[in-house]
Amino acid sequence: MKKFYLSTALPYVNESPHAGFALEIIQADVMARYHRLLGEDVFFLTGTDENSLKNVQAARKEGIPVKKLVDRNAKKFYELKKALNLSFDDFIRTTEKRHIKGAQKLWLACKKDIFKKKYKGLYCVGCEEFYKESELVNGLCPEHKTRPDLVEEENYFFKLSKYQNQLKKIIEKDEIKIIPQSRKNEVLSFINSGLEDICISRSAERGRGWGIPVPEDPSQILWTWYDALSNYINAVGYSDNPKQFKKWWPAYLHIIGKGILRFHAVYWPAILLSAELSLPKTIFVHGYLTSAGQKMSKSLGNIIDPFELVKKYGTEPVRYFLLREIPPTEDGDFTYEKFEQRYNADLASGLGNLVARVIAMAEKLKAQNAKRKTTTQNLKFKKEIDKTWEEYKKALEEFKFNEALGSIWKLISFCDCYIDKERPWELKNQESRIKNQEVIYNLLFVLTNIAEMLKPFLPETAGRILRQTRTTINKPLFPRLK
Ligand SMILES: [Zn+2]
């Protein structure tokens, strides 16, 4: 049986989940469900990154213990499972024992490449990363537009420079395939600019005791990224379950946002090379979700809360919008106006209307799908369905979620035209009754295909369509928004 291990990145838990992470985890969910439908053995991992300095700061602001803050927010991330109907198999928190043990084991496995050095640098807590002066924009972090802190400490470093040539070859030859190509180019140009050794610990004092202690030196805490990246191996038994580890590692796919590309495509493979572990196969990089044209931020008050969206519109319209409207590898914009337009045009009118029409006619003609006697050989129809399946599969192999859905909606339009042309409600004589029934059987057949294709995207709707084709009991899928 073919194995398919995929992960999202682990979000920070200093605040509640916003719709940007919802996009990532829904993309991952579609891939997981799709590969399960292909009959593969799937392991879908997500979780939370809890050892960050940001959490220490957020907790201090609220005047509560850090543990309390991370417990509260990690719970909210877990609750996305129900809200967004996610099918992940495991949820790892980086404060769990299995993770701490694994992160420390990985450190020891890299020991030959770790050394201590006095260091002075500019650290952005938002990114949890040191920046070179030349990487800042007007002295500010390019990601957070904030001034990084000047940090002067004696810390542990990892010999990243040693892996420069090896990494270059790995990326060039797609041994780790980076999608899209533009992100692969970005990684190569970062590698070509010269890799410097990276600082992988901080003083326990600066981290206020929060985080995972460096093995053999508890005065130091693991750098958040060194610890967080190891979750991908820790969740599959790196520290304590060799059998499970052998089964699942290396991961087939990491799904990440564009802001954390170098951690996944440069640092992570280098650490794995150092520890003599296999490398993940694919990294898929999505863009950012903006809100009415601007980056979502607390200060702008434009954060889209996925729980509120689901409460207002339901789970599947939220999944649909993010997958259909947002280009998978570019930035995409959320507005309520666009959301409602998509909902009414594609879900209420397009899909919902077709299903309602076909089921109502089937009911009238007593043409239930289950009672179908012969397979109608309408060649034009069959060709159209086959073509759609082909386009759909190709799009999904390339992570083009929007195009996969686009091809399903083309098939919906094809059916609408077919109905208008055949007018199966007109009854002239007994012969036309038989012909009309055949038209309905064709349409029911295409609806079952549409439902199959929708399974990874809109699992609940797919189930409802399949039920309706069997019972011909017509219930609106997506009532129109006023
Ligand atoms: Zn930053």
Automatic annotation (TrEMBL):
This protein's UniProt keywords: Aminoacyl-tRNA synthetase, ATP-binding, Ligase, Nucleotide-binding, Protein biosynthesis
Cross-referenced CDD domains: Anticodon_Ia_Met, MetRS_core
InterPro entries assigned to the protein according to its UniProt record, in alphabetical order: Anticodon_Met (IPR041872), M/V/L/I-tRNA-synth_anticd-bd (IPR013155), Met-tRNA_synth_2 (IPR023457), Methionyl/Leucyl_tRNA_Synth (IPR015413), MetRS_core (IPR033911), Rossmann-like_a/b/a_fold (IPR014729), tRNAsynth_Ia_anticodon-bd (IPR009080)
Superkingdom in the source lineage: Bacteria
E.C. number(s) listed in UniProt: 6.1.1.10
Domain Methionyl/Valyl/Leucyl/Isoleucyl-tRNA synthetase anticodon-binding: 383-467
GO biological process, one term: methionyl-tRNA aminoacylation
One GO MF term attached to the UniProt entry: methionine-tRNA ligase activity
Residue span, Methionyl/Leucyl tRNA synthetase domain: 5-145, 146-358
A Pfam family the protein falls into: tRNA-synt_1g
Top EC category: ligase
Family: Belongs to the class-I aminoacyl-tRNA synthetase family.
This protein's name: methionine--tRNA ligase
